[in-house]
Design brief:
2 copies of one chain form a homodimer.
Chain A: H1 2-32, H2 39-46, H3 50-56, H4 60-78, H5 92-107, H6 110-125, H7 127-154, H8 164-167, H9 169-181, H10 188-200
Helix pairs in contact in A: 1-2, 1-4, 1-6, 2-3, 4-7, 5-10, 6-7, 9-10
Keywords (chains A, B): DNA-binding, Transcription, Transcription regulation
Protein name (chains A, B): TetR family transcriptional regulator
InterPro entries (chains A, B): Homeodomain-like_sf (IPR009057), HTH-type_TetR-like_transc_reg (IPR050109), HTH_TetR (IPR001647), Tet_transcr_reg_TetR-rel_C_sf (IPR036271), TetR_C (IPR011075)
Chain lengths: ~220, ~220
């Protein structure tokens, strides 16, 4: 009976500790950068013992990657997104514009920005961390674009010879570079334009019934 | 007469010191990162006094930015490029592929890679440095693409309503992101594909006399 009563308490305590550790790790890396973030520092800020952290994770990189995954999941749920698929209304341009506008919002969220920049900066000079960061956090998101572009290939909206893993970079990478390197403003107009340029190309199209970006009318899909 | 003889010697000494300072700054930032690079450290490694550096520059950021500009100029001259213009053979796809292949070579050059990564990483978390880095080093290169795309608009190869400053990001930014974040391999095939996708678009084109990427034949321009 004592065991029955203590189990839920222990679970609640664990859950509370886990969340405190995530919060502490994200705040600390944003303040002092990745190299100066330590398990000791995270534990002290979270108000837990070092052993509590080492019971669940083996390194600060592991703690941080999970904290980022958790933050991304929570943000997606808060915004009402399904985190594991892109919208598929049958209108590729509209769906891509919708998702990229949501990404613009996310990139401008201060809670996301500082820790993400600290981890991204370290990934630029630490190849092993960079590759883990991409494999765990970025590539799964990029695969959602791959899935959406494949479905557009099935319906004939995208050429069958296009490699979706490269094609997605035409609109995702410009936004990423503007965020990483401050090469230009990040706005809805900008990401809408990227989608139009990527889908229809920079060279003139011969006249045809295919709608072009300039005569396609309002691009936002109707959403409930 | 003594003054006449010493002047060329002083110039040679200055030039030698300047080069030693550039080399020391690039080597040091590659080894210890931007935050731990100091004027003292650069001076000591270059074998010059601190005052020599402060006579020419006011901060480590200034030294590094000039060292990078110098490295880029030297690399361009060594490769036989004209550093201030993109080729214009009248074949936009071929010219872009040629320049991006040269960029692939540059990104893979170890002399370029380590110091560039150190500065780029710091720019991700230090907005002021990031903006200076872009304004001094990156934006002038991007403007060469703007010029080339404008000339392609004049000849009708690019749609007149396209904004060249955004359009260039469709092929430049994917390469930049793969380099910065290890999101994929960097090859000639890859950059050639980016150019084809950007120019002709991901959606099918109606049949027309316009060549498409799949039937355009060998893409490399004939070069002397």
């Amino acid at each position: 009976m004592a065991a029955n009563q203590s189990a839920p308490d222990a679970t609640r305590r664990s859950e509370r500790s886990r969340r405190a550790i995530y919060d502490a790790a994200l705040a600390l890396v944003a303040e002092v950068g990745y190299p100066k973030t330590t398990i000791e520092g995270i534990a002290s800020r979270a108000g837990v013992g070092k052993q509590t952290i080492y019971r669940w994770w083996t390194s600060k990189a592991d703690v941080l990657l999970e904290a980022f995954l958790d933050m991304a999941e929570q943000a997606a749920h808060a915004a009402g997104h399904v985190p594991h698929a892109l919208p598929d209304t049958g209108d590729l341009a509209a769906d891509l514009k919708y998702v990229l506008r949501a990404t613009v919002d996310e990139l401008r969220d201060p809670a996301f920005e500082a820790p993400s920049r600290a981890l991204a900066a370290e990934g630029v000079v630490d190849e092993e961390l960079g590759r883990r960061f991409v494999a765990s956090l970025l590539e799964p998101q990029l695969q959602l674009y791959v899935d959406r572009l494949r479905s557009a290939q099935d319906t004939g909206e995208v050429r069958p010879d296009v490699d979706p893993r490269i094609a997605l970079e035409l609109f995702v990478s410009p936004l990423a570079q503007r965020w990483l390197q401050y090469t230009g403003p990040i706005t809805y107009d900008y990401t809408d334009t990227l989608v139009d340029y990527a889908l229809y190309g920079l060279t003139p199209r011969p006249p045809s019934p295919t709608p072009t970006p300039t005569d396609a009318g309002p691009a936002s899909p109707a959403r409930p």
